[in-house]
Amino acid sequence: MGTTHKKTAEKQTSATYLTTEADMTELQIQAVSEILNQTLATVTALFIKTKNYHWHLSGPHFYEYHLLFDSQAEELYATIDILAERVRRIGGKTIRSVGHISQLQRIEDDNEDGVDALDMILRLLLDTKILAQLLREAHTISSECHDIATTSVLENLLDQTEKRRWFLAELSR
């Protein structure tokens, strides 16, 4: 029996191997997966940038900002899995590599040395605004495709994103 299962698995192509049943058309799956993957890439890039700032922070507000950046990074990290699993549940395929992320992300990477704390906050604020816009765009597309579950997930993620944006905006004053 193990040999039969192995032979059957070997015969499966990549197109059928990851196929998931969904109540959406191929075009709907493609549209929602595409925008969710852009969102996933952007969230992943923002997670990395937030952790970068968390690790390279210094100055008089080190303790508070260090904790804030870590908290925001944890939320972003949780969001990565939520988005990726949502793509798979509707029958789509997720991002596969750092290169793929860099192609799809809508925010800029930050490799600069010596970024001061206020600039970190301002950059994260801008990126968080971009993410909020992207989540709204994804919400519109998933709603138009009648993907109620994805629409609901995106509403929750947008609420979390707006809270992070609020905290950053207040610190930037």
UniProtKB/TrEMBL annotation:
Source organism: Dictyobacter kobayashii
Matches recorded under Pfam families: Ferritin
Lineage: Bacteria, Bacillati, Chloroflexota, Ktedonobacteria, Ktedonobacterales
The protein's name in its UniProt record: Ferritin/DPS domain-containing protein
Every Ferritin/DPS domain range: 34-171
GO terms assigned for molecular function: ferric iron binding
Similarity remark: Belongs to the Dps family.
Gene3D superfamilies xrefs: 1.20.1260.10
TM helices/strands, residue ranges: none
